[in-house]
Design brief:
The complex is a heterodimer of chains A (120) and B (131). Chain A has 4 helices and no strands. Chain A is mostly helical. Chain A starts with 6 loop residues before the first helix and ends in a 9-residue tail after the last helix. Chain B has 131 residues and is of the alpha/beta class. A 5-stranded parallel β-sheet of chain B has the order 2-1-3-4-5, with helices on both faces. Classes of the chains: A mainly alpha (120), B alpha/beta (131). At the A-B interface, α1, α2 and α3 of A face α1 of B.
Chain lengths: 120, 131
């Protein structure tokens, strides 16, 4: 019963729920890179990635995924720089770079003690 | 006589951060928290909430933290209420910019939920000491 939960139990429950969000967000990041691969001028794909990365950069550490948060911050910076260069900035090299950042986030989550909110 | 910090208006668009911050401030910090999901909602509910302090996310869609702070300051009842930004913008020049906007302080994201209440209380005491 939620009302009977201690603060620590609530925190643990919130951390587990955040793990589920992480799984969804990383999947969305992967799909965004795929969308950019098939159409480098895909509207909003890069901006969506930046927005998601920003959210993860600011939240992962709070829920025990500090390294993933740092990787997300790096992805946010990369997206920001690519957006500043315009659509011409999304070449194969940039796409590989984005892939690497997303995989780095995935690896950091897998290595964190909490994993995917307790479930892989 | 020192005023004590009892009530906080929390304005944060990220649902996970909103929930964990509210829980942390209530359970670990012992504060009464009014929770808002956007700058507009925060401004609309600010006077009724009558908070001692506002904890405000900076990067929000539609109305960001700077715009929200300006709108809060335009409310007579909120003119003297300290506003603390909750933000990932923690480079020195970014912090100085936020303080120049009128912020009483900045708490970096990500934050430790167990420590959030202490961080807020520390900034509150510094705010009182400056008055």
């Amino acid at each position: 019963m939620p009302g009977a939960e201690s603060a620590e139990q609530r925190l643990a429950r919130l951390r587990q729920a955040f793990g589920e969000r992480l799984r969804r967000d990383v999947q969305t990041l992967r799909e965004s890179v795929l969308a950019l691969r098939s159409a480098p001028d895909a509207p909003d794909a890069l901006a969506r990635m930046r927005h998601l990365a920003h959210g993860l950069a600011g939240s992962c550490g709070t829920f025990g995924y500090s390294v993933a948060g740092q990787k997300a911050a790096a992805l946010e910076t990369a997206c920001k720089e690519m957006l500043a260069r315009g659509q011409g900035g999304i070449d194969d090299l940039s796409l590989s770079e984005l892939d690497e950042y997303v995989e780095a986030i995935t690896s950091a989550i897998a290595l964190s003690s909490e994993g995917w909110g307790g479930k892989a | 006589m020192t005023r004590s910090l009892r009530t906080i208006l929390l304005i944060e668009d990220d649902p996970d951060i909103r929930e964990v911050a509210a829980m942390a401030l209530e359970s670990f910090g012992g504060f009464a928290v009014t929770v808002c999901a956007s700058g507009r909602e925060g401004v609309a509910r600010a006077e009724a909430a009558a908070p001692d302090l506002v904890l405000l996310d900076y990067m929000m869609p539609e109305q960001d933290g700077a715009e929200t702070l300006a709108a809060l300051r335009a409310l007579p009842a909120m003119a003297g209420v300290p506003v603390v930004f909750l933000t990932a913008k923690v480079r020195l020049e970014e912090i100085e910019h936020l303080k120049a906007l009128g912020a009483a302080g900045v708490i970096a994201k990500p934050f430790d939920p167990v420590e959030l209440g202490n961080q807020v209380r520390d900034l509150w005491e510094r705010f009182l000491a400056r008055r």
